[in-house]
Amino acid sequence: MTRKSILDWNRNFFLIAFLVVPNTSLAASKTVIRFPIEPEISHQAQYSLLDLVEVENPKEGILRQLSRAQIPARWTQGSRWSLSSDQILSVLRQNRLSQRGVEILLPQMTQPRKSREILSAPHLKRVITLIAKAECKACEFKIDLHNIPKVLLSDWEWDPFSVKFRGSFTTLIKMPDSRWTGWLTGFVRWKSPVLITQKNISYQEKIQSNDVIESLRDITYSKDLITDPNEVIGLVAARAISPSTALSRGDLRKEPLVKRGQVVKTIMGRLQPDDSDFEVSVVAVAEENGVLGDVIKVKNADSQKLLSATVIDHGVVRIK
After folding, report:
1. Domains and CATH numbers, the chain
2. Three-state SS for 301?
3. Which of 51, 144, 237, 290 could in theory staple to 296 by disulfide, Cβ–Cβ 3.0 to 4.6 A?
4. How far is CA 151 from CA 16, 168, 175, 183, in A?
5. pTM score
6. Which residues are CB-contacts of 70 (< 8 A; sequence separation ≥ 6)?
7. What is d(CA 10, CA 61) in angstroms, rounded to the nearest whole number?
């Protein structure tokens, strides 16, 4: 089901909203594709819709569709050109971009503005930022371009999806009909919501929901920082942790179901292979800590024999 509505934008322009109405479950994740009135662009022989748009809640699949949605070259001739809303909608439909959960906002006329140089820094940064946001929608990215190659002709190509979105990056700019190549270099600073401790946490202390809080931190050079609060609840500290520490996965571990020196129920097996009512079990002592699924050593309390067993519950192990 689709609908068109015309909304007052300002004195000179109107907004046409081509909306595929999503159901309630899709509303929160809806992607909004917005066409600015005068986006700055590079000089190119071939443009795609990705060169023009701003996107809220971008998804990589949709961005790749936009990059493949090429604008007919006959519409982009000359130093100044424009696209009507009908022209843009025709390209969108041809590339099946009018789909559930996608809202498309465009003015009656989009008039891209070419930069003075062949390669436009704002254009390149806009595209790189869109692709980065598809990887982490709650993150903030600051992109600095260090070297923009001096391209002499407009028939250059690049693959923005090859850019690494953390720290320094290098991506190839090439001319398909010549041996000339250049390198676009830059730096991406990445801030992400991560979990920060609010108090001192002792070794092996169990993490509670009020022990941590989300905070936006620079993670450009950080690895394995935890961003999901649900991921830490019920885990225990693998070391003593001070307040205001950004938690990484190495800081926490699962709570041991069996502790070293603990007397455990050791299930040996059933009396008969097909007998589900009776099990043979003995008392043993755990020789090491173990979380669910760990294989640990236990000592038979009677024979003092060491056995390997799998932790299956609190104080319970099974010998296969």
Report:
1. 2-114 (no CATH), 192-253 (3.90.1210.10), 263-318 (2.30.30)
2. coil
3. 290
4. 36, 22, 9, 11
5. 0.73
6. 46, 47, 48, 91
7. 33
